[in-house]
Amino acid sequence: MNILFVSAVLPYPLYSGGQIRIYNLLKSLSSRHAITLYSFIRDREEYKYLTSFAFCKRVETVLRGHAWQPRYIISSIVGMYPLLLASYNNIEMKSRLAEELKTHSYDLIHLEPSYVWPSLPHTDIPTIITEHNIEHTIYEGYVRRFPIAPFRPFLYIDVAKLGWWERHIWRKAMHIIAVSDNDLMYIQQHATHTDVTVVPNGVDIDEFDFRPKKYIPMDAPVFLFVGSFTWMQNRDAVVWLVTSIWPTLRKRYPGATLRIVGRSMPSTLRKLISNHQVMLLEHVESIEEELHNADLLLAPIRIGGGTSFKILEAMASGLPVVTTTLGAAGLNVTHGKEVLIGNTEEELVAAVDMLLASSKKRAEIARNARKTIEQEYAWDNIAHTLDRVWEGTAKRMSL
């Protein structure tokens, strides 16, 4: 089939979970379909990555810039769109897509995620949308903890607008792709006449070798946090980790090291961690080596939605994971089997203690986690699920 794929971000380099997901699915599905990719970019520097998409039929880009621009903020205040959608209400993209649809024949349009909807011109071609998260619920969690209290009422208005638009777009689409069962159930409640299918996030199991550690130095364990700081979930998690959890761990394990790997850390967060003897690594040669050099992955996520690629990658690599219920949400894992889960500082520290004290438990967790990854989260299997949705949607329209 001829597929027009419209992405909010250029899915390369593989910095964020969204980029990892889109890139791997496009790469796998391009062997079965002719895919034309239209993508927003934030910076002209991204042009150099276009050669990474040789498997696509064609790649077109539109410069959007960053979301926190005065024109987008003003538009979200006086216009109908919330800030997130206002930043994608792009005249150039809409015009170029209209011309593309006029001059080329497509069986299907795939948007990822829904907030690029304002740039899609009116069309009768069936449209599928992938949601990486339920965005307004994440935004709401962030606003609830926003440090400047007088701003919260204004931000809650934007949250409400975003929630309304998400539900509206779901009802307009032919099919919605969710990444977890929890997200699927939420979407089904608010878009009762739209088909919804779970196509989970995945891992390149050939890239992430299974190398569990047999020995951990109890006097100097290495803890790891990984995540892009463009996402509010990760910023919030690091604040909790550094200010509440890490001080307790340092008292228990004085020689311990906490390594935080992630791009785009804001200056306020950088200043915070500099006061807590934490190692920040914004650019690493190999995330695989970071995973193999660590002893435990800490993922204290308090704002939920979607699924975490870094947890999946750690599970694939044999690195035991300590996370929260929200961090494990959407993953087919059980506390004590593939990961350890805690929702308070005390529970998370107790989980760390248990894993550091028992090599047998660490080995059991690592084996179970890798088995689950191989059975449920390999990209080829996941791409096959999305392919069935594409084929089924196009077939329905042809009847």
In words, what does this structure look like?
- With 399 residues, the protein is an alpha/beta fold.
- It folds into 2 domains: 2-202 and 378-398, Glycogen Phosphorylase B (Rossmann fold), CATH 3.40.50.2000; 222-376, Rossmann fold (3-Layer(aba) Sandwich), CATH 3.40.50.2000.
- It has helices spanning 17-29, 70-78, 83-86, 91-103, 135-144, 152-172, 181-190, 232-252, 267-274, 287-293, 309-317, 325-328, 345-357, 359-376, 379-398, and strands spanning 2-7, 34-41, 58-63, 108-112, 127-131, 175-178, 195-198, 222-226, 257-261, 279-281, 296-299, 321-323, 340-341.
- The protein has a 7-stranded parallel sheet, with helices on both faces. A 6-stranded parallel sheet has the order 10-9-8-11-12-13, sandwiched between helices.
- It is globular, with a radius of gyration of 21 Å.
- The protein starts with a strand and ends with a helix.
Strand order of the largest sheet: 3-2-1-4-5-6-7
Give the class-level CATH name of the largest domain. Answer: Alpha Beta
Beta-strand portion reads 15-25%
Shape: globular
Structural class: alpha/beta
CATH architecture of the largest domain: 3-Layer(aba) Sandwich
Helical content, roughly? Answer: 40-55%
Query: Which regions contain 5 or more consecutive residues with pLDDT less than 50?
Result: none
In round numbers, the mean pLDDT is: 92
CATH-defined superfamily of the largest domain: Glycogen Phosphorylase B
**How many separate domains?**
2
SS elements, strand count: 13
The rounded distance between the terminal residues' Cα atoms is 16 Å
* Radius of gyration, taken over Cα atoms and rounded to an integer in Å: 21 Å
Q: How many helices?
A: 15
- What string, H for helix and E for strand, traces the elements in order? EHEEHHHEEHHEHEEHEHEHEHEHEHHH
